[in-house]
């Protein structure tokens, strides 16, 4: 039996966990209609703006994915735009390659440049990528300006226009129709990506890289992929730009182009793909307006002054509408939905016996926390036994009970002169609960962090399921079944409660970025969502499944974190102070749950300040004091160990023992 029995008839949620596909279809249909009609109705100035908006929408979508999803800022998107354009122009003009080959070459060159910058930079945390891309922008601009091959300041020109079935694309209307399908396809792929397993993982990384890694997300690989994808879209934009203006020049890589792209993304709303397209149109309109307005206000002003206009708009948006247009639209939409719902409730109240039997015929069946094949308890109804203890699913353990699942040998962590953990060794047997206790600052969390890969030990080894994992990133252990919770909660606040627990299923999923973009992972997603919901019901969190995770009370956030860790079907679960902040009732429930999980075969290591709880729960207890392992054994032996008593209470052993007993009685 696995930890989570999967519902055989997993059904699609009707509660809105997945963004509304119908809305996307309607949106894309309207956009397509506008694209078809616009060239027949727009003035030539409008058509010119529309063409450039479409061209810039591509790098803007890329930047939006990078900044909104991957949480990385690029100040040099124009560099990839220029690399795409120059490569395309060079292949066309100097090597006389066919248009399609030259275009693909432009995109590939931009992606390769991104790999070159991203591979070293994305390993580092912080804003290094922003600085590196800013530098790249300057390098590209200066290189093409100084290099004979790229035409110096004059640039490259004289290459032909694109042709489709022998028809030259030689006016704005045709060019608009030529670019638009690429933008629409890019839009759909990007929308799919944001909803996919990979997209959700990226948002989670934004919320808490440590928690995402601990659930098996390889954050570095994902960021590199999104950065490369983002550069590819910029390169494609550059290819179209080169075709449209019929010249490529160093200005394309200038900083103000990157700022323009940044403005499009911020104005539209970070991470919103629709917002990026809207932002592209608005900034192009704005830029047209500023071109006339600025010389009228400041006679003799050059194009540089336009940057001041962009800067002002950027500041205003950040101050007044930090979520951009996307946020504004969402706020209005939410208000409309609230009013509609209120009206519906009022109307229902007028109908005698308005208790409709809605959906009774298609109630989902669940095997988890209920009887297989029988209608499930509604979300929010706790699946509990007669004593109020949650039902616990079965557990699969890769080892026989008592075999070493985790071996820690000579684990040491020094911070300058501070030895946080000093030569600690212990073994955790499978199917047992091990308590790790010690006074404040004893080194418990540091120990956890070294075991899970959050920090690298100064020396020592951590062997999990026979493989040394010390010093490796947390996702390495997580993929093999090593999952943890955190002393300081690490909630994915950008999503709801079910979204958090769904992320716990990450290591069970397979779909990558490509499958995500193509929308070929529906089954896997719906199945994992159902499992997440089932688990929430079992943990009595079903009633808050749709709430924003950050809005939950502290105690329920802790329970949600445990639930999220369980969703990953771990072989070894490390819990860092899971009882902290819980009510007495919640503590009791959690203790029962842990006992039941252990009885089902799960191995648990528990760091906890509630010593009485640990001594009552654990099969073995390790005690740290000042980084040193001072006791290790069965709870009874540890309870009476004078060294432990002195470490905890810092007084005479007999007196301390008496105090400890009193404490336990009152606990
Ligand atoms: N990044 C760091 N730099 C310097 N010292 C650190 C760092 N992290 C932890 N320490 C020190 O290492 C020691 C152990 O800290 P740790 O947080 O592991 O203890 P703990 O047993 O988990 O404490 P608590 O129960 O209060 O959470 C403490 O003295 C702490 O100040």
Describe this structure in words.
This protein has 667 residues and is of the alpha/beta class. The chain folds into two domains: 21-330, ABC transporter involved in vitamin B12 uptake, BtuC (Orthogonal Bundle); 404-666, 3-Layer(aba) Sandwich (Rossmann fold), CATH 3.40.50.300. It is built from 24 helices and 14 strands. The chain has helices at residues 21-41, 44-69, 77-93, 99-121, 128-146, 172-195, 197-207, 209-214, 219-245, 255-268, 273-297, 306-320, 324-350, 444-452, 474-480, 497-504, 513-518, 522-538, 554-567, 584-599, 611-617, 635-639, 642-649, 653-666, and strands spanning 156-157, 163-164, 167-168, 247-248, 404-415, 418-429, 433-437, 459-464, 467-468, 482-484, 572-576, 603-607, 620-625, 628-633. The strands form four sheets. Strands 10-11-12-7-13-14 form a six-stranded mixed beta sheet, with helices on both faces. Helix 2 (44-69) crosses helix 10 (255-268) and helix 3 (77-93) crosses helix 9. The longest helix is centred in the middle third of the chain and has 27 residues, at 219-245. Mean pLDDT is 86; it is low at 1-17 and 353-384. The structure holds adenosine-5'-triphosphate (ATP). Adenosine-5'-triphosphate is lined by residues 415, 418, 420, 438, 440-446, 487. Its main location: membrane. One of its GO terms (molecular function) is ATP hydrolysis activity. It holds the Pfam family BPD_transp_2. This is ABC transporter domain-containing protein.
